[in-house]
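Recap from last week: sequence in, structure out.
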Amino acid sequence: MTTLQPLARLRERYATPQLPRILIHRGTAGDAVGVSEYGDQIRAALGDRAGAVADAASDGANWAAPSATVMHGTFTRRFDRLDLHGIDDVIACFNGDCGDEANYAGTGGRGLTARLGRNDGTLGDVLSQAGYSGLDRALSVTPEELLDRLEKVGLTGRGGAHFPVAMKWRLAAAHTNEPRMLVVNAEEGEPGVFKDRHMLEGDPHRLIEGILIANHAVGFQDAYVYINGQARQARAAFERALADATEAGIIDGSAWDRDFGLQIHVRSGAGGYVCGEESVILNSIEGERPVPRFKPPYATDAGLFNRPTVINNAETLAAVTTIFENPPPPTKLVSLSGDVPRPGLYEVPVDGATTWAGVLAMAGANPQQVQAILLGGPSGVFVRPEQFEDALEMRGLGAGGTVVLGPGVDIARVTRDLASYNQRESCGECTPCREGSVRLVQLLADAAGNRERIGDLIEVLTEGSLCQLGGMAGRPVQSALEQFPAAFESD
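Predicted structure tokens:
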């Protein structure tokens, strides 16, 4: 009698057969436009076959909502704008008449978005779509070999700083005589960024898998997943996945006949831009005032509860699950919004060939009709049309927040709005940010006449602020003044 390997045992017990079905794209995006109404219509039309209809989260194509996807094994086809096109084509496709396969324009078959919009959130569905394969592969090597693999792949953090993951993990792992902690930053309080909540709503098991891979490499006592307090559906989906994975013996390691020795906790704050700063998250979890900490010490030496701590963005840990793919997909999640016909979540190749012009074309926009791209929100920069043909670089994408600005947008007004936002969101802990952000807004009332003063103030903010909210508050202002000086001359 052949003994099944651990992952095969899990799949035999939980995996669901991939029968024809219809997935209704709910989640924050779908529910906002009332997609459940069309789900009810589809169930009523199918009658006794209504059990083939299930709820899923968005596949990232927010522009398509309300939408649904028909799945026949590996064939999938999304039907967009059910409010305009109705449900007849959805029913026909479920019955076998799907029309032109080329019409399907959803997320790809590899990468972080591979299962978005294609699973119903259950452990069985995720296992049937290769879930936890990365963890299974990671457990077949030693922690040092896993760290070497991360280093070879060159995986960097996806929260904006793009610090090498292997280096950060090694720094914490070196504290062999102390309990180590993992903090997952899914706060995502930055305007224009929604990648983490899409991942948590649509494929929370991928984040859990990434956490467990990190645990194998470093060895943590506790992991805290810090989710934006306003991302209620994201937290609910993650907690359901965590409960399912716990029941299956995935979290404690018993499914692999091991003891992972890890406890995973979920926390939420009240929201706010400053909560995305890693040391603010530590204070929030500890019940302290949510303000930045002085450095050093750094978190890898003395972080949460004064213990060695790794702080990783949710997308970073999701990307960890792909490191054994051949090759790992060189991609970055981009939250695309603004003046584009097809806004949503895009997984963009960072392969030396993809350009902003290509991304805009994917989103249905004419690059020649775009005045600028705001990359990085209140801490970001403006990208001019002359730069649209430059190859995208991972480090240059920051956290992935991307707002397209059409020809009629007032760049000066956008710049003032960004400065005002940073002023409101300042926690007030340090003088350069608390006072400097107020003064920056005042000076922008006459930007042309205050260019020199604005430059001096930005230097103070950059060098003197306690955290990056203040340190980068002047970045979009400087970028706008340098790249669009004419916009301020007539302001």
